[in-house]
Predict the structure.
Amino acid sequence: MGLLKYSKELVQKYANLTRTVNEEFINIHPLQRGGMLTPEALKALIDFGDGYSVCDNCLKGRIDQIENPPVVDFLKDLARFLNIDNAMVTAAARESKRLVMDVLSKKYPKRKIVIIDSLAHYSTYLAIEANHLKVKEVPNSGYPEFSIYLEGYEKVIKEVKSEKGELPLLILLTHVDYKYGNYNDPKPIGELCQEYGIPFLLNAAYSGGILPIDCKKNFIDFISCSGHKSMAASGPIGILGFNEKYQDDIMRHSTIQGNLTSRSFPNKICSFLGCPPVYGAPLITLMASFPRVVKRAQEEIAKEEAKKANYVIENIKNIKETKVLGKLPKIHPLTNVETLGFHEVAKTHPRKGFFLREEFKEKGIIGLLPGISKEMKFNTYGLTWPQVKYFTEVFISIAKKHDLV
């Protein structure tokens, strides 16, 4: 045993781990709205919170082959939901991206370039770096819309082919970006990838489970999704969807054998080091929430959720020195607002940039980043219309308090 000993002080330090988040507050945190657990997931969490709980009835040594709870059926249903040939759970959407790049770099060893949009999540860059690959970015329009030039993908493909004498390893498009919530249509990029023979990965970490997605229709070879960001699951858990063409590459079975013991593990999948580490709460909450996720990702509900974000935007746009960043109208409800008026208030306020978060919290609204007043990100996804209207009223009332309306 190490130097740390069991003590009263140690017990007290970890005795009351609680959050201020409860039914009395409206949570507008941009990362959390899509991951809020459903009642069914909360119930399942109590039974399956223990680490390896979904493995109680594992008969074949593989998480994707467990029949009770029905993981086998779930993965098939998940693939049907995304309209792609196969689906597998992963440790997170970022792990799905890393895994795809790893597999493709072995399949096409001469290809070293991954083309991405210039608003890609930082984990996209790290996945490229972890696989010893190089990145080429497609530019965006800059302030204030930051629209990705989708036509720029072909230009960069040609540049790579000319400079390297090889096609890119992979084309990646962020379906909805984390910074501005901009939606990008995957179909033009899917068609381009078909034309050039380049694998296409759609990063749907912020959209899978919120917006309707049809991988076949959009010529998507791989899709990465996030259960804890957008599919009402506790984290961390991701999803990797992939076409049959890459089945053998993704699901490659182990062939190693011990030199002394002759131990071998032919049933284990190398890409996942046997099984993805989602043995309890992450997988069971994803499964329990799935029927509601399927329902809410239908087009009519997605449009209604977009209306809520656009309602807030329409009503706050006249606050002094306030500007919504990103493309409008919103398709995905993640919203970034430049709040230079509040930033000016922060310069002389006793609480500096913390005042804004604190005044919202006093009104029962949480989820704003602490200490930041220059830029404000929020997400109205899943809020009721009365909650959306109340949030809007509070936003305006705080602006009035500081003479910004």
In short: The CA atoms of residues 56 and 176 lie 37 Å apart. The chain has 14 helices and twelve strands.
